[in-house]
């Protein structure tokens, strides 16, 4: 039995997708100017509705099931939906800048992004293996297309192929893990799998399945040793798709990872804590050190993303509610800061730009406000107070010091310093005098300007006054760790 | 009150960024006006702190994130009050001295942000805000050096920022470890102090956390061997950044060691104290010898500043009440002298175009005010009686001789080195025949005169009346109460008359009060 | 001779999975790589059906329908990208499309 009212947020997004498709078929060209802004506004309104409970949850500790227990709405799932809606709105606004609203394929691109966002919303509510797998693939298939979107550009296609092959392989590994878990537990439902994990923790099949699940998700969140696709996919992908990769796909990986680790496989937490912490430290160091020699902004941001994944893995490695809350806060800070960087990138060059670091030269002169947005985003990524990135790092390091130990804290500092160095390299490039051959900056549209202002405000607000979101995050973490 | 003190410069910075102030002089006037108001408030604040008798004045508490034990808790103690006053004073003179060649608005706004952050760090009674406010200064410093610095500004900006960021991260880990290990579940400094006095952390853990804090704070104060950012950083920075950082910003590390690391981790401090004392002595001598060999005036001052920080570390390592009184006065004395020095060096570079001692002889003929002021800075720098450095260093030596006789004697030799390099700079740069490069040089303009004069006057005032800045009873030394330092036998040596008798008597109550308690 | 049991099916499925993985890693032609991916997915399907047949109810078989649908979509997207790539570069060999450093 399915109760559509529980699915109202997801259905609203589906409606939006249909509206965009129909509109693309029938609307005249002149009326398309504010499409991106309109879709984003609708998404943000939905996000506000979701943040207020969406009329589904009577209170923060309630759990509402539907679809035979396969779909769950609790405070955690609601938070995921808010996050997904906001992140999708950011991606759509970026798309409305590059390639632009009147470019061919704009509507399709927006629909795919909405699909990716929808996938993340369902993933947050996934309560059995089917909804888990289907929502993850909903995201993945949309992303394959988005990465390869610029089909006149060999680099974009190459990135798309690589992402597709590695992504499909990860999905296959994940699916095989699911099959083994299903065999060992005898059911697809998370609740029953959890009981099986508690009672039959010595079952080889179950453990093998769990390990394969972790490996597959390690790919999604680009954790070492499954990270190698990231720089290539980022470099080839157009900026809005890169934003979808890092603001939707990666957070979704962390969301479902948190659901698996802290809910489904919680009985095994003594077993997963160590490997997750080690993977986190390795990821952090790899991301922090690998980016040092990069000369391309997109590759550099890929390494930065890897380093942030390491931080979030370290947060998850502390098996406490504060670990989950720290991860959720970190995700939010990452969304705001990385979103700001992507916005600045969209403004700094046209659709086909390669974004080599020297292309940024003279940005400070040509557009101080764009350079300011870039700097703010980079400092947010680097964790400079009072921006949100700082408080995220503080929460994570707090978890690491209290749960994982000194070696991991040292790794966190080492990785953070490495990434700070390359953020400064970008800052240096943006502030240095203009070199020959730097592309002209594109005129910054009104919607992009509004996006910049909103992200910057959010970055400051959430950083200087974390209490503004802390309540919601704590409720989400408590709902997850029951 | 304290919130206003923090908000005022930040609001002024926002105003400068947003308002259409095209004129550079107007921007400077706004900044200097704000800072003079700030200085007035800081004076009130220092008076309140001195009257509070060892407690906190102007306390403010607001809930901020109770789940994590973080609260908006401000309050000003004596040491904090003195440093707030120092920051405001240095900020005011730096605003008067700054002459950016372009984008003056932005320049002054960045300076105001630094001041706001520093003041916040000195009045925060919550470790979270203590740390956050300090970090406020990092990015503006980076931008100031990057945009308005000297020829090697890019390298300098990268280096200083990376070092300070790395140091801060280590510091963050240390502070978090401290809070978590205490088990108090709060970042509130007074509460932590009370909790840790009752339930101290185990000795091994204390030693480890203390080491982290020492590395973190030490990097921020350029403790040898973590000092390599300082010479190039100060040498390339525009006067505004150099004055604010050398004058006030750098004191944060020493302040943090004095109010957080030493009192909260007494047995950890006991483990590392010896190392710190020897490092301090090594720092004074090593950096002093390097300063002697510098040709560039700004580099000379930068190395001198690194060298002087050794006195602060020595005082902390000694931890005796006398040394701690000297420590507090030393922070102020060094702050004003360094700020005045960098103001003058900045004048040489910006207005005269030369900063190399070899090419700037005889400046006294063209710029008597600058020459006189620099001579006074030099005299203050190596601790001639009359300037605040003298009683401060005297108390540090007197307090340090008991627990660490050998490092203290080495540090005494450091003042001789200081005399050598400072006098060498005066002689080469300002006396002798006029260098051809300076044939058209003009003297300090009015703004710079006021700024430098004010700083030197403050140094003289604190030199003659240290009580006015430290307070009657020796409450700063209560910071040292947890240190278990050996009480110094040295004051008796200091007391013996001589030409400095008047100054020594001014310093006398510092020595006597804790003993009589 | 005893009839094949759960373990036999599982062994076959594991072998299929390994064959598919080896194909993805070793083969140079992207079409073959896509086919190998399908083999991996079908290995998982086989395991699901086997578990379902030997005592776990029908859930697993329903899951397989979903997987088949999703796999079809994945292949459609993959082939579309391959066609675009072939039009642009005239090749679908892995060694010819290594502009991006790994």
Structure notes:
The complex is a heterotrimer of chains A (482), B (517) and C (102). Chain A is mainly α. Helix content of chain A is 74%, strand content 1%. Chain A has helices at 8-26, 35-51, 75-100, 106-125, 129-147, 154-185, 190-199, 204-220, 229-236, 239-264, 269-290, 297-316, 321-348, 363-366, 368-382, 388-404, 406-431, 446-464, 467-480; strands at residues 64-66, 71-73. Chain A has a two-stranded antiparallel sheet with strand order 1-2. In chain A, helix 4 (106-125) runs antiparallel to helix 5. The longest helix of chain A has 32 residues, at 154-185. The two termini of chain A are 25 Å apart. The model of chain A has no long low-confidence stretch (mean pLDDT 90). With 517 residues, chain B is mostly helical. Chain B has a domain at 274-517. Chain B is built from 23 helices and 2 strands. In chain B, helix 1 (2-18) runs antiparallel to helix 2, helix 4 (104-123) packs parallel to helix 11 (239-249) and helix 17 runs antiparallel to helix 19 (405-430). The longest helix of chain B is centred in the middle third of the chain and has 32 residues, at 321-352. With 102 residues, chain C is an all-alpha fold. Chain C has a single domain, classed as Orthogonal Bundle (Helix Hairpins). In chain C, 77% of the residues lie in helices and 0% in strands. Chain C has 3 helices and no strands. Chain C has helices at 6-26, 30-56, 59-89. The interface between A and B is medium-sized, with 30 and 28 residues.
Descriptive labels:
heterotrimer, B: 517 residues, mainly alpha, two-stranded antiparallel sheet, 2 strands, disordered C terminus, C: 102 residues, Helix Hairpins
Total domain modules of chain C: 1
Query: Approximately what portion of the residues of chain C adopt beta-strand conformation?
Result: under 5%
**Head-to-tail CA distance between termini of chain A:** 25 Å
Structural class of chain A: mainly alpha
- Principal-axis shape of chain C equals elongated
Find the structural class of chain C using helix and strand composition.
mainly alpha
Overall mean pLDDT of chain A stands at 90
Name the helix and strand elements of chain C from N-terminus to C-terminus, one letter apiece.
Answer: HHH
Q: Order of strands across the biggest sheet of chain A?
A: 1-2
N- and C-termini, Cα separation of chain C: 51 Å
Largest sheet of chain C: none
Oligomer category: heterotrimer
Rg calculated over all Cα atoms of chain A: 21 Å
Order of helices and strands of chain A: HHEEHHHHHHHHHHHHHHHHH
- Report the helical percentage of chain A: over 70%
CATH class of chain C: Mainly Alpha
- Name the biggest interface: A-C, 42 and 46 residues
Strand tally of chain C is 0
Q: Which consecutive residue ranges of chain A, at least 5 long each, have pLDDT under 50?
A: none
Query: Which topology of chain C does CATH recognise?
Result: Helix Hairpins
How much of the polypeptide of chain A forms β-strand, as a percent range?
A: under 5%
């Amino acid at each position: 039995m399915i109760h559509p009212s529980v699915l109202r947020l997801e259905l609203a997004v589906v409606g939006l997708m249909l509206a965009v498709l129909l509109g693309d078929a029938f609307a005249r060209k002149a009326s398309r100017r504010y499409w991106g802004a309109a879709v984003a506004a609708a998404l943000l309104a939905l996000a506000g509705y979701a943040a207020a409970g969406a009329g589904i949850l009577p209170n923060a500790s309630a759990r509402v099931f539907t679809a035979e227990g396969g779909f769950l709405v609790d405070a955690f799932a609601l938070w995921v939906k808010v996050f997904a809606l906001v992140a999708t709105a950011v991606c759509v606004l970026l798309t409305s800048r590059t390639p632009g609203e009147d470019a061919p394929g704009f509507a399709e691109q927006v629909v795919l992004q909405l699909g990716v966002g929808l996938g993340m919303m369902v993933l947050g509510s996934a309560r059995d293996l089917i909804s888990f797998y289907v929502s993850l693939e909903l995201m993945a298939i949309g992303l394959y297309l988005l990465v390869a979107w610029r089909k006149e550009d060999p680099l974009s296609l190459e990135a798309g192929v690589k992402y597709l092959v590695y992504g499909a392989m990860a999905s296959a590994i994940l699916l095989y893990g699911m099959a083994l878990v299903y065999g060992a537990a005898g059911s697809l439902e998370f609740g029953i799998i959890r009981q099986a994990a508690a009672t039959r923790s010595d079952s080889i099949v179950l453990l093998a399945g769990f390990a394969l699940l972790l490996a597959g998700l390690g790919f999604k969140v680009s954790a070492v040793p499954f990270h190698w696709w990231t720089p290539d996919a980022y470099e080839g992908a157009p900026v809005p798709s890169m934003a979808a990769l890092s603001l939707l796909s990666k957070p979704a990986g962390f969301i479902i990872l948190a659901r698996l680790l802290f809910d489904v496989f919680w009985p095994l937490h003594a077993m997963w804590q160590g490997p997750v912490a080690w993977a986190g430290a390795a990821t952090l160091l790899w991301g922090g050190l690998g980016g040092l020699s990069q000369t391309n902004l997109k590759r550099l941001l890929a390494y930065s993303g890897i380093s942030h994944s390491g931080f979030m893995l370290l947060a998850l490695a502390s098996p406490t509610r504060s670990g989950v809350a720290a991860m959720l806060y970190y995700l939010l800070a990452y969304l705001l800061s990385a979103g700001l960087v992507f916005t600045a990138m969209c403004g700094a060059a046209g659709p086909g730009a390669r974004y080599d670091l020297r292309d940024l030269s003279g940005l400070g002169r040509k557009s101080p406000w764009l350079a300011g947005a870039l700097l703010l985003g980079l400092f947010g990524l680097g964790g400079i107070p009072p921006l949100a990135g700082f408080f995220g790092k503080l929460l994570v390091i707090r978890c690491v010091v209290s749960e994982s130990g000194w070696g991991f804290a040292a790794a966190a500092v080492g990785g953070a310093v490495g990434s700070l160095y390359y953020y400064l390299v970008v800052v240096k490039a943006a502030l240095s005098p203009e070199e020959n051959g730097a592309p002209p900056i594109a005129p910054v549209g009104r919607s992009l300007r509004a996006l910049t202002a909103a992200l910057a405000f959010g970055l400051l607000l959430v950083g200087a006054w974390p209490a503004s979101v802390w309540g919601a995050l704590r409720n989400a973490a408590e709902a997850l760790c029951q | 009150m304290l919130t206003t003190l923090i908000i005022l410069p930040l609001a002024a910075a926002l105003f400068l960024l947003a308002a259409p102030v095209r004129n550079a002089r107007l921007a400077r006037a706004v900044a200097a006006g704000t800072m003079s108001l700030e200085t007035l408030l800081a004076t009130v604040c220092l008076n309140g702190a001195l009257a509070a008798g060892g407690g906190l004045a102007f306390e403010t508490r607001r809930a901020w994130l109770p789940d994590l034990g973080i609260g908006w808790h401000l309050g000003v103690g004596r040491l904090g009050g003195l440093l707030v006053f120092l920051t405001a004073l240095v900020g005011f003179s730096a605003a008067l001295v700054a002459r950016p060649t372009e984008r003056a608005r932005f320049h002054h706004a960045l300076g105001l942000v630094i001041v706001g952050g520093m003041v916040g760090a000195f009045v925060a009674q919550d470790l979270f805000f203590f740390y956050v406010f300090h970090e406020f200064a990092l990015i503006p410093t980076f931008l100031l050096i990057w945009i308005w610095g000297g020829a090697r500004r890019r390298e300098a900006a990268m280096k200083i920022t990376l070092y300070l960021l790395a140091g801060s991260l280590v510091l963050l880990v240390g502070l978090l470890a401290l809070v978590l290990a205490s088990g108090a579940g709060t970042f509130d400094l007074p509460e932590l102090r009370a909790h840790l006095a009752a339930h101290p952390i185990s000795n091994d853990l204390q030693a480890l956390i203390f080491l982290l804090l020492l590395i973190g704070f030490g990097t921020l104060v350029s403790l040898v061997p973590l000092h390599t950012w300082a010479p190039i950083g100060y040498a390339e920075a525009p006067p505004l950044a150099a004055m604010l950082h050398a004058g006030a910003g750098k004191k944060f590390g020493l302040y943090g060691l004095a109010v957080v690391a030493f009192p909260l981790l007494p047995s950890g401090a006991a483990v590392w104290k010896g190392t710190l004392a020897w490092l301090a002595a090594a720092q004074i001598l090593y950096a002093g010898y390097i300063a002697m060999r510098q040709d560039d005036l700004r580099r000379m001052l930068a190395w001198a500043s690194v060298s002087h920080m050794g006195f602060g570390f020595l005082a902390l390592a000694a931890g005796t009440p006398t040394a701690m009184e000297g420590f507090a006065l030393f922070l102020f004395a060094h702050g004003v002298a360094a700020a005045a020095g960098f103001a003058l060096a900045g004048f040489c570079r910006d207005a005269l175009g030369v900063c190399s001692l070899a090419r700037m002889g005889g400046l006294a003929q063209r710029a008597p005010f600058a020459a006189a002021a620099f001579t006074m800075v030099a005299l203050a720098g190596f601790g001639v009686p009359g300037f605040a450095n003298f009683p401060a260093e005297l108390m540090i030596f007197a307090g340090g001789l008991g627990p660490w006789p050998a490092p203290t004697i080495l540090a005494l030799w450091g003042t001789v080195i200081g005399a050598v390099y400072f006098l060498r700079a005066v002689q080469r740069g300002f006396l002798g025949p006029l260098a051809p490069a300076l044939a058209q040089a003009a003297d300090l303009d009015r703004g710079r005169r006021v700024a430098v004069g004010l700083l030197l006057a403050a140094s003289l005032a604190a030199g003659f009346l240290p009580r006015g800045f430290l307070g009657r009873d020796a409450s700063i030394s209560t910071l040292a109460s947890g240190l278990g330092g050996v009480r110094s036998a040295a004051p008796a040596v200091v007391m013996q008359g001589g030409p400095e008798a008047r100054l020594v008597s001014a310093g006398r109550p510092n020595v006597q009060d804790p003993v009589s308690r | 001779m005893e009839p094949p049991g759960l373990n036999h099916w599982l062994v076959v499925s594991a072998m299929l999975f390994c064959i598919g993985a080896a194909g993805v890693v070793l083969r140079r032609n992207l079409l073959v790589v896509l086919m190998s991916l399908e083999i991996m997915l079908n290995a998982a399907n086989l395991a699901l059906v086997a578990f379902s047949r030997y005592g776990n109810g029908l859930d697993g078989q329903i899951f397989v329908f979903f997987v088949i649908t999703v796999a079809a979509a994945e292949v459609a997207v993959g082939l579309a990208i391959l066609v675009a790539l072939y039009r642009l570069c005239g090749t679908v060999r892995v060694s010819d499309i290594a502009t991006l450093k790994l």
